[in-house]
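Q: What would this chain look like folded?
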Amino acid sequence: MTRLKSLTHFPFLFFGLTAITGVWMRFFIISGKEFIPYNHLLHGHSHMAILGWTFLAVFILFINMNWDEIIYKGQAITIVFSTVFVTIIMFFAFLYEGYALYSIIFSTLHIGIEYWVIMFIFISLKTISTIPKIAQHFIKGSLFMLFISTLGPFSLGAIAAQGLRDSVLFDIAIYFYLHFQYNGWLYLFLIGMFISLLKKKGITLRTSFLQTSFWIYIISLFPGFFLSILWVDVGFIGIVFAVVGAIGQLLGVTIICMALFQVRSQFQQIFSRRMNRTYCFIFALLMSKSVMELGLLHLPFALLVYDSRSVVIGYLHLMFLGFISIFILTLFQNMQLLQESSTWVQKGMNIFFAGFLLNEFVLFLSGYLTWTIGKTVWFHHELLFVASILLLCSIGILWTSFVKNSRTA
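A: My prediction, written as structure tokens:
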């Protein structure tokens, strides 16, 4: 197993820890046994998911896809190990003390690594000739959005220092961070990597479509933030911004899907039927998320959604667990980090889909039933516990497959 490929163990480790804390939280709700305070688990789970699993996984994708043309290979390896070191300590600090001194220190150190990654990728793009120019636009845009997202955590410290931790400003800063993470940094980076992968496989998407999608989406991201805070009185101007953001993001996503639809015959020739279905599912999730956001423009419905914890959690899982995580795992297969033909990988992905779909079904149906009859799904917490177990098992199976494949490589 090459040293580069062995680095993929770390994203799987982080994904596993994310899943373990997810199971732990579901078990706590069912049993009521509190070994670690629930809020500590929640902080550890969310930070590991975003700053551990997704952050490191996309960086691993980047260096694996472009390793031959990356000049500063030693620096790339150092970034990975620095991320692992800081993230693990941050994770256990959250479990130990919640949002407090040491967890804040290591969260801040992680932001420093994020700035390092921004500079590293930006400089590396200058010497990588195999990434199409339009894909570089998406990647550079993602780096800018990653930088913008870090303003959220920095503002949290200032807000808390003013004694406003329980104010709406604190929640707004969190939503700001999340918006520019999943709608900005992760979406744009994965699309850029995907375009680059397709180019390597001989599939060229229409550049005019991609350029149009990129600029519409980028411009709409900023007013689109108001979609996340419609539960605050943002006034008429804020509502106008939300409308522009929602329509713009939907248009950007729709144009990307149109560009992919135009080359569907090439997809069918190059990718397996299973992979074709997976990519259809990934972009169907993305379209669903964008269409759902249009519903938030009806203010009474928006307030109803924001007051429904299960719907908010379902929405976040739709993006992080659905679109982003499945996209990453699929790109892992395309880059031979996971063997698509392996029975272990196929079983692992099937179980992951089952866990994800059960999780989303229960969360969104519970939200709907709460609105209509004031009750949740029968065995709501038990079913979510089962879903979390399925997700943990699937990650274990996929990681096992990676280990088996690495030994025979």
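The chain has a mean pLDDT of 92.
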